[in-house]
Specification:
Blueprint (H helix, E strand, L loop, with lengths): L7 H32 L4 H37 L3 H28 L1 H8 L3 H14 L3 H16 L4 H22 L9 H26 L16 H33 L3 H37 L3 H29 L3 H4 L5 H33 L3 H26 L4 H25 L10
Length: about 450
């Protein structure tokens, strides 16, 4: 058991890298939370409509993050190997692939929003809200691709403070624009749901501009001139694509499974659906903490693998798992306490919606302990490009066990929404056991910086 406990120096280094990423993740996720909080005053149908629209956005965003994250692994390992040209080339590839893969989602948001929202929920009122929100939100996909690539590259070379700062500025702007466009201020008419979407789009473009300015001012190792964007070699592109495709498909299928899960919860009526949307929004905040720690672990271990220090990387992997155990317990306690803020934050929602959402959070908090420990394995596997283990743990088990069980309970039984949540917890337990076994096989200890 001692190998799971890192020294004070290890924990300090990990937290130094993780803290800005966690803060950035919390700030970034709060953009959607602010939408939910503010438009929640307009009723439960609005909450459900935005939740459905944001689920499609989450699929696109997950795909983008998968590509930039995969390129980030190579950037981290090349950084460990001190190979500046390959760092630049990896960044160029991240930009190109992200934009190409974003285009189908952009078309979907503009041309087929009704069809997309209808997949998640059958309620006409919720569909109408979701469609109005999505058509405008589609414009935000464009600047997000650029911001994701730049932010990932900054974190990959151990510079997470700049993305954190930019996200802090962005969320402040978003809050101000929400008041202006949603409720009407400074002579502007109140636009409600459309105003929330417009505020997000403007914020995303400003955010991308801030990243561009940061690139101009600071001499980041990955920075590349516009005229050099075409300078990509086939061998590296092939290596990145070889790793990126499984990561991308896994993340997309995982997000697709989340969409099916959301649809299953939608079978229990508008009130339960809205309660689940509230509970998920609260839970997403806690997921940003484990995501911050995990992202730091990926960068930390990737750099060790890249400079050829495989033994140290192996040791760090086990210590990171021990660190995540402590973090999981702390977040679990915080989660239990979060139930008390829901009546205050969502005061405009019906009492029944608030009551159900509180109970769902209590149930989800039990499953979060297993989720946290499983996800740490994911980030360790990612550091070494272990796509096999990730696909088995993250995507395979979801579609073989989780989704079929949930669909069966949702559509072929009359069990309530709490039973559906129980299926989620069971699936997380199975995933945790599988991830633990895959971790011990140590296929993740690989140096990708070697040609």
């Amino acid at each position: 058991m001692r190998k799971y406990f890192g020294s004070r120096q290890f924990n300090g280094q990990l937290m130094k890298l993780a803290m800005p990423i966690m803060i950035q993740n919390v700030i970034n996720s709060s953009l959607n939370f602010i939408d939910n909080l503010m438009v929640g005053q307009l009723g439960s149908a609005v909450i459900g409509g935005i939740a459905a629209s944001n689920r499609f956005f989450a699929i696109m965003n997950s795909g983008t993050a998968s590509i930039t994250g995969t390129c980030g692994i190579f950037i981290s390992q090349f950084y460990g190997a001190n190979n500046e040209e390959k760092i630049k080339e990896s960044f160029r590839i991240a930009i190109w692939i992200s934009f190409l893969l974003m285009i189908p989602f952009l078309i979907g948001a503009w041309v087929f929003p009704n069809l997309i929202i209808s997949f998640f929920i059958d309620d006409p009122q919720i569909i109408d809200v979701g469609v109005r929100y999505m058509r405008i939100m589609g414009f935000s996909y464009i600047p997000l691709c650029y911001s994701s690539a730049v932010g990932s590259a900054m974190r990959s070379i151990g510079k997470p403070k700049m993305p954190m700062t930019i996200c802090g500025i962005s969320v402040t702007i978003k809050l101000l624009l929400n008041f202006i466009f949603m409720f009407g201020a400074f002579g502007m008419p109140g636009m409600g749901v459309e105003g929330a979407a417009a505020a997000t789009v403007i914020t995303r473009f400003i955010e991308a501009g801030l990243y561009a300015a940061a690139m101009k001012i600071n001499a980041f190792m990955f920075a590349t001139k516009l005229r050099e964007m075409h300078q990509i070699t086939w061998p590296l592109l092939k290596r990145i694509v070889y790793k990126a495709v499984p990561f991308y498909l896994n993340d997309m299928l995982w997000q697709a499974s989340n969409s099916v899960i959301l649809k299953c919860f939608g079978t229990r009526g508008e009130l339960n659906y809205s309660a689940y949307a509230i509970a998920s929004t609260i839970m997403d905040i806690f997921h940003t903490f484990d995501g911050g720690i995990g992202s730091a672990v990926t960068v930390f271990i990737s750099q060790k693998l890249g400079n050829g220090d495989l033994k140290h990387a192996q040791k760090s992997g086990y210590q990171a798992k021990g660190f995540s155990m402590s973090a999981a317990v702390i977040l679990f306690i915080m989660m239990l306490c979060s139930c008390t803020i829901i009546p205050v934050v969502y005061s405009g929602s019906p009492a029944e919606v608030i009551s159900v959402s509180q109970k769902l959070i209590l149930l989800q908090s039990a499953g979060f302990l297993f989720y946290e420990l499983s996800m740490m394995n994911y980030y360790i596997f990612k550091a070494g490009g272990d796509t096999r283990s990730i696909v088995i743990m993250d995507c395979g088990l979801v579609w073989i066990i989780h989704v079929p069980l949930l669909v069966g309970v949702a559509y072929y039984t009359g069990l309530n929404i709490y039973a559906l949540m129980g299926v989620n917890i069971f699936a997380e337990m199975v995933k945790f056991l599988a991830a633990t076994g895959l971790f011990k096989q140590e296929h993740w200890i690989k140096n990708l910086a070697k040609s």
